[in-house]
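One thing: mind reviewing this one?
=====
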Amino acid sequence: MTTRLLPALLLTLCLPLAACSGADDAGSTPGKSVVDADAIEKGIQHSADKTQSKMAAKLRAKMEHGNIDLSDADNNKAEITPKGDLLINGKAVAIDAQQRALLLDYRKQVEQIALAGMDIGVAGAHLGAKAAGEALRGVFSGNPEGIEAKVNAEAAKIEARAKELCGLLPAMQAKQQALAVALPAFKPYATMDQSDIDDCRS
């Protein structure tokens, strides 16, 4: 994963800042930029956190209280309810206790992956804020060397977490296939194959 610091990013961040004109404010220390990169980074992080928090709350509520949507190769829809019912075209499929247990186990796996993906998204938003802060520090300190290396080091951590998420997919595929065998009505929705796992890892 390579991070490139684009000049356009800096320009966008500088537009609302009078300090980007290069002139010192009255009373400021000569030669010292009035731009507070830390404050800007924190501001971006705060905005990202606020947005991500709302999204996370909605996703967690969906996972806990809502139906999980499924689709087959023809984009026909089905749902798994929080109680483990399988709905196709809005109608519950007759299931026994074993099938319900498998549906709930599969649903739990979907929840785990969705929430892990959400956490990675939050980390990515923080990385964007950090990249902006590092870029500004480099520009206004006159020492841009090493900025990309610092950001790439953080990006590598997110990449490692993404690989951990990919590691959950084989278990999800196995649960999906077991459910398809035990519940034929679910089979059209067991669409995951090895290529999905390979694509994630690549």
Remarks:
- The longest helix spans residues 97-141.
- Residues 1-35 have pLDDT under 50 and may be disordered.
